[in-house]
């Protein structure tokens, strides 16, 4: 390996490290919406130059987790209720489509894995942990769209998930009762796929599954605002 190649590899490694470090702090809300991302401070904390930090911030900006404003600089993106709604609506469409495309290509082993994850979700219901339930929920859906041949679509799904993590630790923390129904709907999705349902039927079922969570959240919020 040449010196130049080794240097490129090191630079890529540092950029990835900075990206993962920043992303974790944004998603976990240690860096809250509006938090200013000062290159020199972040680079000093990571023990790297500002170059990999700048590259990491650009990646996060592309994902919608960071914004850049003139005379202000980079900061963690501000969020509001309307943005949560539109993110969920968008995710319902792209995740539903990705699941529909993936369904005919899923293997017996894939479906067995999805069923096992859903059972773990069911097991958490007795002593409910919204954050853990949400993590398992992502694992479940990642299996269902695993075989989607459209990489652009799956990238959009993952970006939507990233955005949701920043907006809410877990929607199920606001509507824990929705978790029981969600697990049941997972069973239905697996059943449709196993029985060779049309891709469009699977897509619509996956889309409805996502919008049902949004509807439950909005109903809960509306009830809390009542005088």
TrEMBL record:
CDD domains: WHTH_GntR. Coiled coil: none annotated. It comes from the Bacteria. InterPro entries: AsnC-type_HTH_dom (IPR000485), GntR_C (IPR011711), TF_FadR/GntR_C (IPR008920), Tscrpt_reg_HTH_GntR (IPR000524), WH-like_DNA-bd_sf (IPR036388), WH_DNA-bd_sf (IPR036390). Keywords: DNA-binding, Transcription, Transcription regulation. Residues 12-79 form the HTH gntR-type domain. Gene3D superfamilies: GntR ligand-binding domain-like, Winged helix-like DNA-binding domain superfamily/Winged helix DNA-binding domain. PANTHER family: GNTR FAMILY REGULATORY PROTEIN, TRANSCRIPTIONAL REGULATOR, GNTR FAMILY. This is GntR family transcriptional regulator. It comes from Saccharopolyspora endophytica.
């Amino acid at each position: 390996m040449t010196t130049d190649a080794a240097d490129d590899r090191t630079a890529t490694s540092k950029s990835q490290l900075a990206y993962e470090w920043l992303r974790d702090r944004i998603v976990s809300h240690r860096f809250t919406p509006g938090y200013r991302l000062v290159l020199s401070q972040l680079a000093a904390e990571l023990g790297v130059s500002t170059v990999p930090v700048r590259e990491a911030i650009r990646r996060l900006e592309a994902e919608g987790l960071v914004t850049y404003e003139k005379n202000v600089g980079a900061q963690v993106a501000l969020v509001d209720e309307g943005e949560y709604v539109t993110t969920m609506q968008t995710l319902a469409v792209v995740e539903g489509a990705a699941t529909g495309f993936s369904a005919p290509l899923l293997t017996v082993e894939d479906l067995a894995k999805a069923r096992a994850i859903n059972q773990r979700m069911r097991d958490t219901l007795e002593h409910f942990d919204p954050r853990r339930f949400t993590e398992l929920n992502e694992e479940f859906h990642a299996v269902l769209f695993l075989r989607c041949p459209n990489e652009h679509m799956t990238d959009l799904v993952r970006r939507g998930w990233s955005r949701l993590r920043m907006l809410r630790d877990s929607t199920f923390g606001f509507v824990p009762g929705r978790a029981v129904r969600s697990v049941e709907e997972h069973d239905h999705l697996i059943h449709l796929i196993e029985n060779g349902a049309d891709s469009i039927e699977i897509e619509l079922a996956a889309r409805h599954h996502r919008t049902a969570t949004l509807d439950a959240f909005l109903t809960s919020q509306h009830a809390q605002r009542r005088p």
